[in-house]
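Case study 2.
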Amino acid sequence: MGIVRSLHVRLASLLMLSAGALAACTSSQDVLEPSAITPPPGNVASTAELDAAAAGQPVSGPQTSSVAAQPLPTASAAATGTARLASVGIQFAPIVGPSVEAATTLSNRLALQARERGIRIIGRSGTGTTHMLRGYFTPLIEDKQATVVYVWDVYDLSGNRVHRISGQETAAAGSGDGWAAVPASAMDAIGAATMQQLAAWLSSSG
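Prediction:
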């Protein structure tokens, strides 16, 4: 219960951050800009929803389904999914929460995983964007463990939230406080899990 209470306090503070510029990066080495933004009213990942994610409970709104629970695709379904991924162009809005170091590790893994799946990451001045991702992150350091709780909201070109990916990653805490105690391996794992779940949803969506 201590982690959940701590999460509530941290997220309440996080979601009061002032709005920043809505922009994405221009290279795979800088996929995410770690400047904080506040999403448009009505699309904010609420504190209650992020508390639920931290507790491993379902959150409201469009969400990802468990990748492991999905049946193995047929050859034709796999080919269709691959074609859908090839038509996708992902743009990342500035994310809320991580330090520059944590965001760099995350962005590198996202870029690598996207490239392996044939998903294009579109820079600010690029064309062909089909979806926008906005991420919200908070670290919890307790009992020599670092837990990063995260939520990604996926938007279509009309600004409608069409999907949500949420989860948490726990690892042994390093020295320091806050993000300084979060090991790079945790952000690396989040990047891999995020793209895996995003690709599974994109492949199965119409």
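The longest strand covers residues 131-142.
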